[in-house]
């Protein structure tokens, strides 16, 4: 009994952890390109799920609805950059972060008007029969989330290291002026980072909706937890974001299971405080070098 | 000055033309939360009030005079609610007021109406609104205590002596947890597992696993609001828990059943009258209004009727009934008549007010329904 109970907490924690991790991935891309922490990330997740739900309700096939939802969310990401972030370029980074908080409130408000306050679901991609693992059960969709998130991390890491866009992204994050001097179209690259980040968020939204359901305000908590995961894993590292998410998720589930649900959220933040005391740049964050 | 003369002339003309005593309308005030976080409560209330005031006027108004609804949106904010309360009694000179949607904002408004001696019928659930009784304050929704009474009575009947609570940490969940703990104690029912969940949690498996592994649980009571209730039922099914599942009135919506993905099957839900109006017997005095309102709301909005709109329906019904019986729209007379309301079938229950009871309905107007093939079945 004790083992199956532990396994159940672990599975639940991993499921939630991968959800946080998937959401956290989007943070890293925009941060890498512009050092902005985009707090509208949670709303992108919500939009991914919502657009898909409404595409399907309009009679589109699942896949078409999902692709349209991802494209639309990416477009909104680019619009966010072009109309809110870019006009304020030159402002300190913290001002840009505040703009993203404003954008998140705006998107949430519009979503409330457009979709209402109700909540929606998507069918699970892997069926509904729970998988039994030594007395503990896992939802089939959890495995879809795990595989999907791992694929996103892999693709993202590959893109950052192997493609021109990825390298340009990293260059832009290191020194904007210098990268412009070597011929990188910084405006395009940063806009691209918002699009990629929105795509990651929308995919995460579509993957997690069968588990968590989706409503206009689901992004708030997800963004907060995902932000905690990113801080834990180290800003700007895709793998770090994922591992951070897992640590937060499992920490929460274990606290809820063995101590009390009341301390669940606190537990996640205690983990972060402790880790950040020992590793101020996060578990996988590189130290920041300032060249004089 | 000129304007006054003109208005008087107009009034006189109308009096002659309409053959009524005065053209001055009967003014009923309302403050609801049409926007902001409590919009899901206030929006259906506003739709209902506008529609039924219009209908009152089509049927000749009250006391032979037209009825004017002075409606304000407090944007789910207690300060704003109080401002509008003051405006209603000082500028609009209303006979009675309906509102507001939330307990906190209602409490903020009460002293205004107490000082002005104008009756208020609240649409909020909190028991603090009518306990202790304030002579000028009434309300229409069930309290969480009634919901818990209803469920605990059933637990006693079925000899479920050891039960588990699974409640949300939001306002509704907290209140349900407190009231149900008290009601359980009163009836000698032991709560052997007491778990909570956050309003936006995406997975409740750890809490449910603990309940599942607690030996001797006869039934699980789930209380809260919105999306997490559906997640609880999904996880309930996934974990293969066989213990009877009970839900508070927060789950009495079609969305809950649809989104729980089969997990709601066989769950017992404490449902208000409106949910099962069409299943009541033909001779039930509560049936006609509930069925009519259900249909009217659907025609108006294209959506299923909500209990929150029903509370507003009843508030307006109580006030217009009181004005008719008092044959006066003087606030003091309306108050006295409200308190004397007897056997008035509303869409929330049968209202019987008294000096000690300013809610007038009890747990008998809550129905235990079972989810069968995704439909409510009254058993």
Structure description:
The complex is a heterodimer of chains A (292) and B (379). With 292 residues, chain A is mostly helical. Helices cover 74% and strands 3% of the residues of chain A. In chain A, the strands form 2 sheets. A two-stranded antiparallel ribbon of chain A has the order 1-4. In chain A, β2 and β3 form a beta hairpin. Chain B has 2 domains: 213 residues, Rossmann fold (3-Layer(aba) Sandwich); 147 residues, Rossmann fold (3-Layer(aba) Sandwich). In chain B, α2 packs parallel to α11. Chain B is elongated.
- State the major sheet of chain A: 2 strands, antiparallel
**General form of chain A:** globular
The oligomeric state of the chains shown is heterodimer
N-to-C order of helices and strands of chain B:
HEHEHEHEEHEHEHEHEHEHHHEEEE
Taking the alpha carbons of the first and last residues of chain B, their distance comes to 66 Å
Runs of chain A in which pLDDT lies below 50 for 5 or more consecutive residues are none
What is the CATH architecture annotation of chain A?
A: Orthogonal Bundle
Summed up, the domain count of chain B is 2
**Percentage of residues in strands of chain A:** under 5%
Q: Helical region count of chain B?
A: 12
Distance between the termini of chain A: 60 Å
- C-alpha Rg of chain A (nearest Å): 19 Å
In the sheet with the most strands of chain A, the strands line up as 1-4
């Amino acid at each position: 009994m004790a083992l199956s109970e532990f396994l159940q907490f672990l599975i639940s924690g991993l499921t939630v952890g991968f959800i946080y991790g998937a959401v956290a991935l989007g943070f890293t891309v925009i941060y890498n390109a512009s050092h902005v922490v985009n707090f509208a990330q949670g709303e992108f997740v919500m939009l991914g799920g919502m657009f898909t739900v409404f595409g399907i309700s309009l009679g589109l096939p699942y896949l078409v609805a999902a692709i349209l939802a991802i494209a639309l969310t990416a477009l909104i990401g680019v619009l966010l950059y072009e109309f809110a972030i870019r006009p304020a370029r030159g402002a300190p980074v913290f001002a840009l972060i505040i703009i993203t908080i404003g954008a998140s409130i705006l998107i949430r408000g519009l979503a409330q008007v457009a979709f209402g306050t109700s909540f929606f679901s998507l069918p699970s991609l892997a069926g509904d029969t729970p998988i039994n693992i030594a007395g503990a059960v896992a939802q089939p969709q959890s495995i879809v989330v795990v595989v999907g998130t791992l694929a996103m991390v892999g693709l993202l890491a590959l893109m950052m290291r192997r493609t021109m866009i990825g390298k340009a992204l990293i260059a832009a994050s290191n020194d904007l002026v210098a990268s412009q001097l070597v011929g990188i179209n910084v405006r395009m690259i940063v806009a691209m980072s918002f699009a990629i980040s929105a795509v990651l968020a929308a995919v995460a939204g579509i993957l997690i909706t069968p588990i968590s359901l989706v409503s206009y305000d689901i992004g708030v908590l997800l963004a907060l937890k995902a932000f905690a995961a990113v801080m834990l894993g180290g800003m700007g590292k895709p793998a770090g974001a994922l591992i951070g998410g897992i640590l937060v998720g499992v920490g929460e589930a274990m606290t809820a299971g063995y101590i009390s649900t009341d301390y669940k959220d606190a537990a996640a933040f205690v983990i972060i405080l402790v880790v950040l005391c020992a590793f101020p740049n996060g578990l996988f964050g590189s130290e920041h070098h300032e060249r004089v | 000055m000129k304007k006054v003369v003109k208005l008087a002339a107009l009034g006189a003309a109308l009096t002659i033309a309409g053959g009524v005593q005065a053209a001055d309308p009967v003014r009923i005030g309302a403050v609801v939360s049409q926007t902001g976080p409590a919009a899901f409560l206030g929006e259906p209330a506003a739709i209902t009030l506008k529609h039924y005031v219009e209908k009152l006027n089509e049927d000749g108004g009250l006391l032979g005079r037209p009825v004017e609804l002075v409606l304000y949106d407090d944007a789910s904010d207690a300060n704003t609610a109080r401002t509008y309360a003051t405006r209603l009694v000082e500028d609009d000179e209303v006979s009675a007021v309906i509102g507001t949607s939330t307990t906190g904002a209602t409490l903020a408004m009460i002293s205004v109406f107490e000082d002005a001696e104008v009756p208020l019928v609240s649409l909020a659930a909190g028991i603090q609104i009518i306990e202790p009784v304030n002579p000028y304050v009434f309300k229409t929704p069930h309290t969480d205590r009634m919901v818990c009474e209803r469920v605990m009575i059933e637990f006693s009947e079925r000899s479920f002596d050891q039960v588990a609570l699974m409640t949300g940490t939001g306002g509704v969940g907290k209140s349900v947890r407190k009231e149900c703990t008290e009601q359980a104690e009163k009836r000698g029912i032991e709560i052997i597992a007491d778990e909570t969940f956050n309003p936006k949690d995406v997975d409740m498996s750890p809490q449910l696993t603990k309940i599942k592994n607690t030996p001797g649980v006869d039934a699980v009571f789930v209380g809260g609001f919105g999306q997490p209730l559906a997640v609880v039922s999904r996880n309930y099914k996934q974990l293969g828990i066989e213990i009877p599942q009970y839900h508070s009135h927060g789950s009495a919506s079609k969305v809950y059943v649809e989104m729980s993905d089969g997990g709601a099957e066989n769950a017992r839900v404490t449902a208000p009258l409106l949910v099962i109006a069409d299943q009541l017997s033909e001779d039930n005095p509560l049936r006609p209004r509930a069925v009519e309102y259900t249909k009217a709301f659907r025609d108006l909005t294209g959506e299923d009727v909500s209990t929150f709109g029903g509370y507003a329906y009843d508030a307006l019904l109580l006030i217009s009934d009181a004005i008719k019986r008092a044959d006066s729209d003087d606030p003091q007379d309306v108050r006295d008549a409200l308190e004397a309301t007897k056997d008035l079938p509303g869409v929330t229950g049968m209202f019987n007010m008294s000096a000690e009871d300013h809610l007038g309905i009890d747990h008998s107007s809550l129905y235990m329904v079972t989810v069968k093939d995704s439909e409510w079945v009254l058993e």
